[in-house]
């Protein structure tokens, strides 16, 4: 048997050596030993010839060490861990419950898309593995890792708002794990870029509406409200933007490119056009060329022009 980092082992307490701690092994006499430092017992005292379940890890000097603290993840297991810190040369350090952190290497993330990298406080689904020297490392969980754990989303989820976490990012959207609650571990989902109000990053928690429950039990999600509710919300946002603009006008219309609309309003072009249509129908705005104007602002400008010429209405 081996003293393997990342595992919980049932060991015998062979002897106590002050001022270090207790030395433990698989048997009472023969075989490798590991130190359980006094500082890793949480104040508990062990008796020689007793037994203890300990978690093994490498200390700051790369020595295999034992602790009585209970880890949030062990070798080969999956867990959702909080991002505690970041180092630009190494990667993200995840809190694992033993007073030390687990490294998730920087190469796990697309170098050209730093906007999707996690931030401190985000939660990542990872699996613990080892590097070539036997030290603990994390890797991002993939779809195949979730497959034996997730459940098929119920049809009752349709049009409901659910919470979840982003697990991976692709060119046209993000994969997610939707919170299962009392139902279990969770269900797999996907959010298309067009269904986002703003880009989502790996590890970010979100709340989204289920737009489809697929035959395979996965769900399609949208950060946006339904079209009708979304039209009202988007229209209010555009109206507020116009009211803050000089002269109540903006250089955006239904002729503006989808890229410019997405960049400025975080809306798809179709959603933007629906919102403009609502405002025009209500008589709140008008369009001239590539510009959109508040109707009240345009009317006031017209009144001022009439007064300046000395003409009555």
Question: Your description of this structure?
Answer:
The N and C termini lie far apart (98 Å). The protein is elongated, with a radius of gyration of 29 Å. The protein is 19% helix and 36% strand. It is an alpha+beta fold and 313 residues long. It has four domains: 8-67, Nucleic acid-binding proteins (OB fold (Dihydrolipoamide Acetyltransferase, E2P), Beta Barrel), CATH 2.40.50.140; 78-141, OB fold (Dihydrolipoamide Acetyltransferase, E2P), CATH 2.40.50.140; 146-222, Beta Barrel (OB fold (Dihydrolipoamide Acetyltransferase, E2P)), CATH 2.40.50.140; 231-307, Orthogonal Bundle (Arc Repressor Mutant, subunit A), CATH 1.10.10.10. Helix 2 (227-244) packs across helix 4 (269-281). Strand 7 (91-95) and strand 8 (101-105) form a beta hairpin. Belongs to the CvfB family.
């Amino acid at each position: 048997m081996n003293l393997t980092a990342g595992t919980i082992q049932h060991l015998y307490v062979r002897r106590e050596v002050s001022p270090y701690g207790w030395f433990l092994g698989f048997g009472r006499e023969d075989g490798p030993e590991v130190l359980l430092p006094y500082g890793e017992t949480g104040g508990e005292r062990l008796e020689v010839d007793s037994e203890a379940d300990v978690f093994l890890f490498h200390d700051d000097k790369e020595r295999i060490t034992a602790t009585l603290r209970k880890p949030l993840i062990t070798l080969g297991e999956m867990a959702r861990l909080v991002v505690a810190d970041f180092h630009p040369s190494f990667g993200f350090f995840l809190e694992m419950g033993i007073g030390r952190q687990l490294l998730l290497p920087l190469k796990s993330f697309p170098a050209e898309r730093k906007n999707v990298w996690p931030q401190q406080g985000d939660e990542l689904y990872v699996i613990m593995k080892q590097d070539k020297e036997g030290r603990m490392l994390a890797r991002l969980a993939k779809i195949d890792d979730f497959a034996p754990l997730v459940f098929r989303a119920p049809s009752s989820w349709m049009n409901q708002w659910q919470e979840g976490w982003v697990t991976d990012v692709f060119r046209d959207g993000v994969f997610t794990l939707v919170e299962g609650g009392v139902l279990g571990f969770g269900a797999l989902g996907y959010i298309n870029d067009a269904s986002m109000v703003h880009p989502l990053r790996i590890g970010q928690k979100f709340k989204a509406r289920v737009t489809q429950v697929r035959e395979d039990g996965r769900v399609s999600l949208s950060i946006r409200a339904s079209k009708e509710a979304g039209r009202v919300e988007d229209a209010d946002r555009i109206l507020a933007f116009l009211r803050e603009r000089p002269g109540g006008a903006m250089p955006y219309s239904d002729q503006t490119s989808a890229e410019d609309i997405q960049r400025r309003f975080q809306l798809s072009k179709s959603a933007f056009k629906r919102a403009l249509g609502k405002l025009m129908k209500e008589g709140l705005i008008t369009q001239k060329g590539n510009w959109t104007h508040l109707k009240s602002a345009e009317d006031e400008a017209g009144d001022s022009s009439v007064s300046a010429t000395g003409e009555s209405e």
